[in-house]
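Structure ticket #2291
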Amino acid sequence: MGRPDQLSRGAQAARLARGAADWLLLDAPGQDRGDLSLYHGLAGVALALHEADRYFGDDRYRQAVSRGADVLSAQVDSLEDCSLYFGLAGVAVALRALGRHAAADRALDRVRDRFDGRRWNAMSELLMGNAGIGLGALSAGDLDLAVMAVTPFLTSADRTRCGVNWAVRPSPARSHHIAHGTLGIVYALAAVGDAAGRQDMIELALAGAADVAGRDEAGQDGFLVPHSDPPHRPDVIERYSYGWCNGPAGDAQVFRLLARITGDESWAALGDRCWRTVRDSGLPRRLRPGFWDNNARCCGTAGVLALACDRIVERGDDFGFANLLAGDLAARATIDAAGVRWSNFEHRATPGDLQPRAGWAMGNAGIIRELLRYARLSQGADDRYAVPWPDHQATGHDR
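Resolution: structure written out below.
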């Protein structure tokens, strides 16, 4: 593929991202207004607009980021949830990144005060529990809180056939992937352990990763692990997924981190196997109801694009699959005078087209970040995000 063609693809992605950021400036309609969280709400939106400001140098975005930081700062004392993706830890990440250090410290102090010695709520995983709070604290510069959050995993691990895992929810099911399962805990233990010089945490993280690796059903050329065992809510949750949250696109992110920390190339090889499975799965095509209905960062095309761009930088991949993903996002965008946005699809609902959302997980904010990074790579520019994400290891250029 010639360089001019790749430059053109990058320019198209940047135009989409700009239209998506403009839609956010309109106080994008939807069910998320008033939500402050990193997942669906203002914290994630503010970071995406910060990304857009860094790329375009548009004062409209800068002013919107400042207004968002003001709101987040003012609301810290009213938040009760402490989690990374739905509460104070994620808000602290955003506030620290946006230079509101006193408010970030206040948020982290509230998180610390609500710790009962073991956990903050019934969940202990990355989105809602200890693992995510540890990563949020680490990202926001509070290593002591990060260590405090992940230390309970040292005594709550259960031995399995190939390693260890943890009970992440009150029900019996053991989940395996990054969003709600073992690999999210592995990521937190490894990242915090590496930062704190805690080899015991790193060793336990490796045992957790070994448990998940031992559940692979794809064989030596791929990597595919079920959502959970025994199956958690099998009436509504697919047994196998391929995105960031519960599939090999997210699994590979954990293996990237372990390869970097340990220097053991076998973890990078597992990441390669994950990538082969993702590429061979058929996504982003909608092969059947429920197979691939999401454009967004958490469990859709943008989250896979994040890994594709990591691999371009770290593994020397060509742009072929990244171009396919970016092209699919372009084809599925709604573009009009209001800007650009994406509707996900729910095959179990009628009508199936869902209302566009603003936030990081299921909406514009997460897609903007990944389109702009793809645009920078396509232009031969620095691949770094304006703000690294707590559970997305930076490439070598970022560190």
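Closing remark: The radius of gyration is 20 Å.
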